[in-house]
TrEMBL record:
It comes from Lactococcus muris. Pfam families: GyrI-like. Residues 22-204 form the GyrI-like small molecule binding domain. InterPro entries: GyrI-like, GyrI-like_CCH_Lin2189-like, Reg_factor_effector_dom_sf. It comes from the Bacteria. The lineage of its organism: Bacteria, Bacillati, Bacillota, Bacilli, Lactobacillales. This is GyrI-like domain-containing protein.
Length: 218
C-alpha cells in the first residue's frame, strides 16, 4: 500500500485546540487517544516509562502504510500529535503550600486520528512488542471528551503554572463560568519537548473543565 498524500497535522488543521492566543472558553469534542495511567511525580521512573511506551505504538500506526500486508480502513498519513496529560492529586494542599508531586495521579496520552480503533491499537501493540521485545499491554485505547472548558497557553516552567491557572479563574469569574473538577483537575498539552527544552521556554496548553454558574446551581 503506497500513500503519497501530505501528512495531516492536527496542530495545523485544528489550531484552536493547540494554540490559544488568550484565555478563552472552548468546546472540545470527543477524540481518540492512546493512554497510559499512573501515579507519582513526573520525574519518576513510572512516568518516564509511560511516555516511552506510547510512542512505539503510535509510530507503528502512523507508519503502517509502509507494510504491504497491513491495510487499516480509512487510513491517512498523519503527524503524531504532541504529548498530553490529565492531572489530579491524591491530596489537596493548604493555601500557599506547594503540591506534593509524589501524590500526582495522571493519564498520559497521544491523540490518534478517528480511523484508529481498538482493533488497530491491539494490532499495533502486538507489532511493537514483537519489534521492541517489551510489554505494551498497559497502553490503552480510549475516546475522551473534554467538553466545555477554559484554556490558556502557559509559557515557562511547570512549577509556575499557578499564575496561568489564576488567570483562567479570573476569566471564568468574569464570564460567569464555574471551573470544575471531574475525574481529573486539568489537561496539559505539551507543545515543547520538556526533555530537551529549557524550563523558561516551555509552552504548554492548560485546559480546565467548566460550566455556567446557572448549571452549577441545578
Amino acid at each position: 500500500m503506497t500513500i503519497e498524500t501530505e501528512k495531516v497535522d492536527f496542530k495545523k488543521t485544528e489550531k484552536k485546540f493547540y494554540y490559544p492566543k488568550k484565555v478563552e472558553a472552548i468546546m472540545v469534542p470527543e477524540m481518540t487517544y492512546l493512554t497510559v495511567s499512573g501515579a507519582g511525580e513526573p520525574a519518576g521512573e513510572t512516568f518516564q516509562k509511560a511516555i516511552a511506551s506510547l510512542y512505539p505504538v503510535a509510530y507503528t500506526i502512523s507508519m503502517s502504510y509502509k507494510k504491504e500486508d497491513c491495510k487499516i480502513p480509512n487510513f491517512y498519513r498523519f503527524v503524531v500529535p504532541p504529548l498530553e496529560g490529565l492531572w489530579t492529586s491524591k491530596t489537596v494542599p493548604k493555601k500557599g503550600e506547594p503540591l506534593k508531586k509524589e501524590d500526582f495521579v495522571w493519564k498520559i496520552m497521544l491523540r490518534m486520528p478517528e480511523f484508529v480503533t481498538e482493533e488497530v491499537v491491539e494490532w499495533a501493540k502486538e507489532e511493537a512488542e514483537r519489534k521492541k521485545k517489551q510489554d505494551f499491554s498497559h497502553v490503552k485505547y480510549e475516546k475522551i471528551e473534554d467538553g466545555f472548558c477554559v484554556q490558556a497557553l502557559h509559557k515557562g516552567s511547570f512549577d509556575e503554572e499557578a499564575h496561568t491557572f489564576a488567570q483562567m479563574e479570573e476569566f471564568a469569574a468574569a464570564e460567569g463560568l464555574q471551573l470544575i473538577h471531574k475525574t481529573y483537575h486539568h489537561r496539559e498539552i505539551y507543545l515543547s519537548d520538556f526533555r530537551k527544552t529549557a524550563p523558561e521556554k516551555l509552552k504548554t496548553v492548560l485546559r480546565q473543565y467548566a460550566r455556567t454558574k446557572e448549571e452549577d446551581k441545578r
